[in-house]
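Changelog-adjacent note: as of this version, every example in the card shows the full chain rather than a window. The one below runs 82 residues end to end.
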Amino acid sequence: MIVYSYSKAKQNLALVLEQAVKEGEVRIKDKNGQIFVIKPELKADSPLDVKGVDLNITTAEIIQFIHEGRNRITTMSSLDKG
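Full-length structure tokens:
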């Protein structure tokens, strides 16, 4: 575990941050002996961030499917009422 003095960390902030990413954390000790831990924040991936699937269909085909589905729903609704 690397411990930097406050002054060294201040002079070499980019290096300290790189080291934190590489090692998982870096410690900085101030003049009073207090130690601080610098850690990179973990990236939280969204559960909605998924890869797309190539279905080899056009926009026009997608719109046609939507219209067909809506027409089916409308037809079923009118049958239920009648």
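Structural remarks: The chain has three helices and three strands.
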